[in-house]
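Students often ask why we bother encoding 3D structure as a string. The short answer is that it lets us treat folding as translation between two languages. Here is a chain of 265 residues written in the first language.
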Amino acid sequence: MCRECVHHREPGDRCRELQRERLRRVYLFEGLPEPQFRSLLDHMAEVELEHDQWLCLLGEPAKNFYLVLEGDVALVRTSADGDDLIVAILGPGELFGEDLMYCDEPVHPLSVRALSASRLASFGCERSRLLLEADSELALKVLRTVQRRNVMLLEELEQLTVQDASARLLSFLERQAALHGPVIPLRFPKRVLASRLSIRPETLSRVLARLKDCHRIREEGGSLIVADQEAGCALCETCPARHWGCPGPRPEAGEEEGAWLRRTA
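And here it is in the second language, the structure alphabet:
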């Protein structure tokens, strides 16, 4: 029983109604003809995970793909040294593994671990593949998803190569702010965020402290808040944190971008 309908007289019906509405909002299922959509619901299962529980491991046979209904899960790649690298953090409404429908003998390319108590919807790859064969638009949506993720991974690879820790954090927060607004809840430990950004936890702590000092971000009530980038910073003239991502004060009238570096060097 989900939390939203625990007080309703007929929670089963309420759950099914909410679940149907939630699934219809998932872009992959938008526009799916009603018979196929009903078939998808009829063969859907739910999976509940406890905090830190593994759903699957790299290389295991993959029979299902998943939609996050509640909580957060991490897609994890383990290095040859045994270190876990978090490739992505997914929350409610996000899918993973649907591209495996195209594989004849699919295996999980990443391990999946719950970052909090989580509830997932599970869909069988083999049966869903029949939907792809019957609906070309659905097949195109899956291909577009794969293409978008490839672009995102290439962008991330570039960031890991050329950006320092501060720039990676700011890029991540700015993407989250663009999607969800400037207040970004920290729903998981900061060590998880550090792994997601491929930096050490102690480095993340230093970066957060310096970005707070120069007012790029602030932390309130368990959330990070991205500052107005047009506001400037009264401390930037002397603040050593400018090399950790702070752009410095806005150029004066007629001054070229970056001249503040020469003025304050």
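Translate back mentally: The helical segments are 11-25, 34-42, 125-134, 136-162, 165-180, 190-196, 201-213, 259-264. Keep this in mind for the problem set.
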